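HOLO CASE FILE
Compound: magnesium ion
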Amino acid sequence: MVRTIQAIRGMNDILPDQAHHWEFFEQTVREWMAAFGYRSIRMPIVEQTDLFVRSIGAVTDIVEKEMYTFLDHLNGESLTLRPEGTASCVRAALEHNLLYSGPQRLYYSGPMFRHERPQKGRYRQFHQVGVEALGYTGPDIDAEHIVMCAALWGKLGIADVRLEIGTLGSVESRNLHRGRLINYLEQHLGELDEDAHRRLHSNPLRILDSKNPEMQQIIDGAPRLLDDLDEDSLKHFEGLQRSLRDQQIDFEINPRLVRGLDYYNRTVFEWVTDRLGAQGTVCAGGRYDGLVEQIGGKSTPACGFAMGVERLLALMQECGKEIPHVGPDIYVVHQGENATRFAWETVRYLRDEGLKAILHCGDGGFKSQMKKADASGARFAVIIGDDEANSTEITIKPLREAVEQVRVGLAESVNLLKQI
Ligand code: ATP
Ligand code: MG
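Model generated. Tokens follow.
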């Protein structure tokens, strides 16, 4: 016996019974993006490792322990399966000078890879739709992104998501805050856990994001970034809030909102739900004004967000969104040499007329073919025997409605099939 091979842990197959949910989602996203004037961009799934180290940050969870990194044995380059899309998108925009023709509204979707512990809503290959606006100073574009999300939730039939927003300020104000935070944490050295000790000087802001309950008290007493913010960042944040109020979008300010990626500044936001258990963030994003320069371009303001497709699909299901599966219109059964020849002609004709037609393949008498027709989910069986073939007619038998079967010519059948 040959050992069976299974999919890699945390990497899922999407089977035909699920696929129409994905297709509905993808189609909805395409129309939604077009409505807001965003254009699609497609990047490779593999990039040079350095791109992610430089953009996401060397002391982030993603770069420290979640990346699928490997050597290209043919030339010794270190490559990484993309853990997210923003870095690749910015790299592509720079590489092809997209920003020379002005600001860009872009989106992409596809698989991302992170070596995390698989659990409900957390996978090693998962999918994101990412949206990036490059070259906009905002805060109007920040607001646009949030308004877009709210519009999409409506189209997907999603409820029970709340918006949390925060601001990280400028790099300078964050550095000021960083100093004060380190100072505070050093006064509580004995109470810090191992992770916090490790991050104390490399990434102290991330300590505030700790899930360790024993750390909560220290975290609650820590200086707040909001109190160290620079004037311009505060104005930007107020501008965003004003737009959201104008657009009747509810939000909560979360002063502890730190994102897991280093490139963010000023606006950060998350859409969170309580209906998916621990993995409740379905969408997250913010401003990243320093990233383009960090990757080697001219300083360019930018902001964007990414949605977790698996989590959104799960939430759609939780919210009872019905996505009808549309089966074929017709299943053609046939027997006899002339009949088979005419059956081929028939399916071609029907498909050209815009109908979805399956031609029975393989053996089987009429009875067993009819069983397959029924199982296919088709609305009609079209029956062709030599008798039909000789008179170039077909017999249409409704499989779902209590309607009599009829025998008609091909041209006539199309009107009839479209009518019923
Ligand atoms: P989390 O805090 O859940 O780990 P994150 O901050 O690492 O999320 P981002 O990098 O901001 O996530 O990615 C944006 C969105 O992508 C998340 O809000 C989530 O919906 C989804 N996502 C991230 N990691 C995973 C994963 N491993 N499996 C499934 N979805 C994910
Ligand atoms: Mg994560």
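CASE NOTES: The chain has two domains: 16-170+230-318, 330-419. DSSP finds 16 helices and 16 strands in the chain.
CLOSED: yes
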